[in-house]
Specification:
This protein has ten helices and nine strands. The protein is an alpha/beta fold. α8 packs across α9. The radius of gyration is 19 Å and the shape is globular. About 2% of the residues have low confidence.
Length: 253
């Protein structure tokens, strides 16, 4: 089956990220990367059970920490934990982020993959105060150059800097003149380690898929190193096809 068909066969909440909760080490790495502190007002859009909101307040003593999520059960769980912790200047809101207000934000964590949502949120982000940092995971905001990268964590700072094209954006994220297999694998592994818990059984499988996606995108955009497909890429394409019945070659243009 084509990789698109494989992804469609997975539970919808896994694909959308609704059931993906970042581990504690990821939140700690993100907050250290953005250098969040007691002067910041932090918002986590799509906060799930509120773990990141609590960590920002407890470990980094932000001025205010707010979580917003459309899932009523998750917000109820977060509010229950908040009541137990008796934490001040920490809030949870059950609503659609497309209609939320966060004008006082100085740091926003935004991990969404739906391009329609991203495009609409970019317009809201543009209205935030100068210097506000939007943290994304895996890719920068569509059409804009990152201001700082510690892959897979990326910061776009208001006002955003427009990218000339996808090639410029991709190379800015990877900080390379071209993308080879080693780079694709290294960055895919960084992403896998960032979002998964230690000793996850699916880490290598996820890394293989992500490294192929990175290299294929680079090839299609004309920024892959060399003119031929590296042997390692051919091998992993074969592994997916022969052992998992997943086909990715059609993605190559």
């Amino acid at each position: 089956m084509k990789i698109e068909e494989y992804l469609q066969s997975l539970p919808r909440k896994i694909i959308s990220g609704d059931d993906v909760q970042l581990p504690t080490h990821a939140f700690l790495d993100i907050f250290k990367f953005v250098k969040i502190n007691e002067n910041d007002v932090f918002y986590h859009l799509g906060c799930g059970n509120g773990a990141g909101v609590f960590i920002a307040k407890e470990e980094f003593n932000v001025k205010k920490s707010v979580g917003i999520d459309l899932d009523r059960e998750k917000i109820t769980e977060a509010k229950k934990t908040l009541a137990e912790k008796k934490m001040q200047n920490c809030h949870f809101v059950n609503e659609d982020i497309l209609y939320s207000k966060f004008d006082d934000a100085t740091v926003v964590l935004f991990w969404f993959t739906d391009e329609k949502i991203i495009e609409k949120m970019i317009e809201k982000f543009k209205q935030l105060k100068k210097g506000c940092k939007i943290i994304t995971i895996w890719g920068p905001l569509l059409g804009f150059l990152p201001d700082k990268v510690n892959f897979p964590y990326i910061i776009n700072e208001v006002p955003f800097r427009e990218a000339k094209d996808l090639q410029e954006q991709l190379l800015a994220v990877f900080d390379k003149r071209c993308i080879d297999f080693v780079t694709a694998w290294e960055y895919a592994e960084r992403y896998t380690k960032a979002i998964s818990v230690p000793q996850s059984e699916n880490d290598r499988f996820l890394t293989i898929i992500q490294s192929l996606i990175i290299w294929i995108n680079a090839k299609n955009l004309g920024v892959a190193c060399g003119g031929k497909m590296p042997p390692a890429i051919k091998n992993y394409i074969g592994i997916l096809r022969n052992f998992f019945n997943i086909e990715v070659e059609h993605l190559l243009k």
